[in-house]
């Protein structure tokens, strides 16, 4: 048990400063855009200005004669080189048993363009300026077609159709849960509460825009792609195997320092394939760096659901059944995880922390003339939590019940774990009541009426809102994921290389792009092997250095990768015990390893970790007859279950009655993350996640123009990122239960802030306005939207 | 960004000569021009940097008039004791433009010449009844702003400064775009020798005055004098942040807050 290990100043539970921050804070990070290769050229994409158009002739002559231009490549060139389309990593199955519609996704458009930003040509030149200049004069003949950007419009019978093979723009009509049981429960229910809502479309906007550099080395017939990716091995697999047909051993993918991902960089993008293909074709290194405005129309977007939800209740407020119907926007093509997010990562979360016995969820995945939609921090789980936690408040309001009382009435109690939900997943551990009670205490929920009165005296509406939540992280047992449509495994790998001096290099299949893995994983090694973190380096992001990995997303790095690391450390310890037993002439079972020392139990005979490391490489006194020299071990870990972090978030807001402006005045989060490796990093993950969720709730909205299909919020002038001055000082703490199936008891914490906050903030806003009879406000709760709902609510009163 | 020639003239006559050239454009702090060039929405053969021209510098107050050189940055206006001692509402306005980076680069003259419909300064210039001084003449504020990004400036004409009559009271209130932090609606109210003037920025294609509010405030310079008063939504801007009727509503709210600020 970890609890029995001696205290280690750099081990598990220590809030040490992040090892990587010295590099980042002193400007020594090494990002893809920083790369310079010999003879490097520069590429620029020509992108469609139209949402939907037939693609006519592409006249590249004017571009080719721009001085310095080396190539102007189009979809026809890709086809001639037999380059494959961009694959989707998940294939889901509809309720009719049929596979989803999976239209071809050429890396450069062929025949048609399907969204503003769809790439139609790639210009390569000696300089970035020449490439841009040439891109401006590529003449593309577009025959503009009617477009559709909104899912409600896209499923209408007369809607423009993106793909002939997907009538009605339907990619898949999917369901989960027991429809008959739900129907029966609704038929006999004392009360039914209903809610229609929109989950607004978001643009991830990591600080570092995407970029790629590719190079071909004919000497070894080796291709290298440096890319801003959260999962370089998966890019190697998808791009090498399906798109460019490069054998895996001839393709190296490197994701060096990456400045934020949030999901945006966990997909295999067409640009990566085009840049690599162009570099091989030209025999020159090619660099592409996405501009911010280009990122808005080419980075996969997030969310974008339209949902109807209904809860059946008995007269005491007990939830009997939940019915959810969602239209999920896929955009113009299927991105890597696109169809998985609003289905497998959404419906199973609709149980939340409640005992609702019957749940049915149907999801129609719909093509529209918009940027492809895929995972964005939380990915399906914030959407599910928003539906559920808003609906619970509506239930309370309609039954005249207290919002806390109705939650308490339906909450899974700590003694009920493991808890099997009606939507596939089985929660292993948790204490939602404990999280909620602690959050209520910190937020002084009981004292809220007085604060509301004080605000009213100032002429301000004040509201408080709570959202409980649970998330499923560390996806997932490969066997189950593949049954649900995953086209790859979801294990993780770690290797520990102990050097002769006892210094350690750990090679991880996950990728850190802001999460602080170089510290967290080093702390795990420090704890397990008893070496200080200074003696541990964490390596990741290079397919030539790291054995394999599925990368970082879905809060999986610590729970899946960390477990692999722990298992690799266990192998090191076991081998070390064998060496030590030989040297100390003891039975292996009698040798224990504690705090960096091998000891014959009950004696003072010891060998230090450094001594054993040295003897593994200088095997003078070494059991060569039973052991190989050296000290390096590797472990792959395939999760046995999701992990289920959860918690309760409470937001308090004030609303300016005249302008509709919402000010977030208080935020409390009490979360169950399982074992905490570094409390400071956990708090940082929560802070960042909460701010992103508040951004969705209050200001972020990737608005498209319905007529033209243009992304109206296509720059920071119109797309409103959350800012520091929007946030109060957050109170973040953990209330942890141990995960039963990860080695260290960890559950993950990367997305929870984003999952709990949209509903907490929106519930607070609705609470503030409840005196006006307002029961729901869609996100983002912009001043204009709040003012409009206040106007609408007040009009009937004015008419009286 | 397309290639261009960069020139920094030593005096007004050299600046004028340079600006007479084909494709030349005046550069102040560059806070509006450079983003447009970078996005390749515009291209100019020559940028003529006016920001360091000596005649465009300086802040002074004499005989009830505050003079601010066109090359003065927003940060300098915000921090100026002379401005604070004469028209504190103008200092407050300058201190609320954009963000620190913009305030350290952007200039008064650049803002006025650009005439962005959501810029702050035009509201102050119009409400205070200021005169825009150029290398050729002095243009009254009422004649200066002509529409969307349109002013009375002739080709090559250079703003050298602005003469603001010091009012008895003035206040500015703005409702910022949550994204760009430009004014969705900004209202500047000034009570001067010639009566009260109310100017609105952000709401329409160009800054405009609200005579109805001016009459009400002439009668009683109180917040309550504006109760129920606003402008009709017809002709106002509408975008994803604020529909025209919301902007119309905000004109009333911000005008009342500007009066409150003036009386504070």
Description of the structure:
The complex is a heterodimer of chains A (800) and B (264). Chain A has a domain of 174 residues: Aldehyde Oxidoreductase, domain 4 (2-Layer Sandwich). In chain A, 28% of the residues lie in helices and 23% in strands. Chain A is built from 20 helices and 30 strands. In chain A, strand 21 and strand 22 form a beta hairpin. In chain A, helix 10 packs parallel to helix 19, helix 15 packs parallel to helix 16 and helix 18 crosses helix 19. Chain A is globular. The N and C termini of chain A lie far apart (69 Å). Chain B has 2 domains: 161 residues, 2-Layer Sandwich (Uridine Diphospho-n-acetylenolpyruvylglucosamine Reductase, domain 3); 95 residues, CO dehydrogenase flavoprotein, C-terminal domain (Enolase-like, domain 1, 2-Layer Sandwich), CATH 3.30.390.50. The longest helix of chain B is centred in the C-terminal third of the chain and has 20 residues. Chain B is α+β, with helices and mostly antiparallel strands and 264 residues long. Chain B is globular, with a radius of gyration of 18 Å. Chains A and B meet through helix 4 and helix 20 of A and helix 11 of B. Chain A: InterPro entries: Ald_Oxase/Xan_DH_a/b, Ald_Oxase/Xan_DH_a/b_sf, Ald_Oxase/xanthine_DH-like, AldOxase/xan_DH_MoCoBD1, AldOxase/xan_DH_MoCoBD2, AldOxase/xan_DH_Mopterin-bd_sf.
